[in-house]
Amino acid sequence: MNKTAIIQLLGLTQRAGQLVTGENLVLKAIRNQSAQFVFIANDASQPTIKKFTDKCKYYQVDNSIVLSRQEISNAIGQSRSVAAIIQSGFAKKFKALTEKIN
Predict the structure, then answer these.
(1) How far apart are CA 77 and CA 57, in angstroms?
(2) For residue 69, what are the CA distances in angstroms to 23, 35, 66, 89?
């Protein structure tokens, strides 16, 4: 299943230092346009999901809500509901993988 591939790649992205996590840092990355792709937990609060999807739409950043908070947290080893990929190569791969799920 693709979700497993996404989770494994998310862990790799974290180890490669190409991931920004935490709401404030991710918002900052979106605003200064260093974020290339954003994961938003599908079980985050509605205001959080809305805030990040709206922000991503405004700044034209691809995003996905296919993973749960637990899946994101397990992949990166920290409890997080949002994560931004800041490297374009990883971002393209995530975009391709998440499109197959949606």
Answers:
(1) 28
(2) 13, 19, 10, 24
Amino acid letter, 24 = N
Q: What is the pLDDT along the chain (102 residues), one digit of tens a residue?
A: 589 999 999 999 999 999 999 999 999 999 999 999 999 999 999 999 999 999 999 999 999 999 999 999 999 999 999 999 999 999 999 999 998 876
**Model's pTM, two decimal places?**
0.95
Q: Other C-beta atoms within 10 Å of 67: how many? A: 24
Return the closest-CA partner of residue 77 out of 5, 11, 4, 2: 11
Q: Is 23 exposed, middle or buried (0-12, 13-18, 19+ CB in 10 A)?
A: middle
